[in-house]
Each structure stands twice: as C-alpha cells, then as structure tokens.
Amino acid sequence: GVLILLSLLEHRVVIVGDTAIHAKVGPAGWRAHVDRIVLAIRRGQTADGLCETLREIGETLTREFPPRHDDTDELSNAVRERPR
C-alpha cells in the first residue's frame, strides 16, 4: 500500500510505500513525487498535482505489481479526509 499525507496546516507532504513498493520506487522516486505535489501547492494547483502524482504511482503499481485473477482489495480505496 501507499500512504499519502498532505497537511496544508503543517506544510507537510509525506508519501510512504510498503516494503515491496518502496523497493521499486526508492527514496529518489518518493522525493520526486513529493516535490511535484509541493510545486503544485505553491502554484495554487494542489488538486492537479495530487491527481498527477496518484496517476503516476498507479502506473508504477500496475507495471510492477500486475493484478492477478485472485486479487482482492483488503482495504477500501476511498479517499479519507478529516475535517479541520
């Protein structure tokens, strides 16, 4: 799994992948994703930067971990937002 933490209040963006995904993406890959989101925030295009990053991470997951016929989702794919 991949966790993306975006805290505008704390001015923080953190992306963490599980062990197998981290092995494929690596620290430089995560840094590039974080930098893209931060740049988008600075330009006032937070949603666009986040969507682009999600698309790219999704492409990596699809390429590196292709779905199997017996795959099931263990967790919901719903975005969770906590109100301020």
Strand percentage lies at 5-15%
What is the straight-line distance between the termini? Answer: 25 Å
Describe the global form.
globular
Which stretches are poorly predicted, pLDDT < 50 over at least 5 residues?
none
- Sheet with most strands: strand arrangement: 1-2
Q: Mean of residue pLDDT?
A: 89
Biggest β-sheet description? 2 strands, antiparallel
What brief labels describe this structure?
84 residues; alpha+beta; two-stranded antiparallel sheet; 2 helices; 14% strand
Task: Give a summary of the structure in a few sentences.
The chain is an alpha+beta fold and about 80 residues long. Helix content is about 50%, strand content about 15%.
Secondary-structure topology with pairs:
Layout: E1 2-7, E2 12-17, H1 19-42, H2 46-64
Antiparallel strand pairs: 1-2
Report on the architecture of this protein:
The protein is of the alpha+beta class. Helix 1 packs antiparallel against helix 2 (46-64). The protein has two helices and two strands.
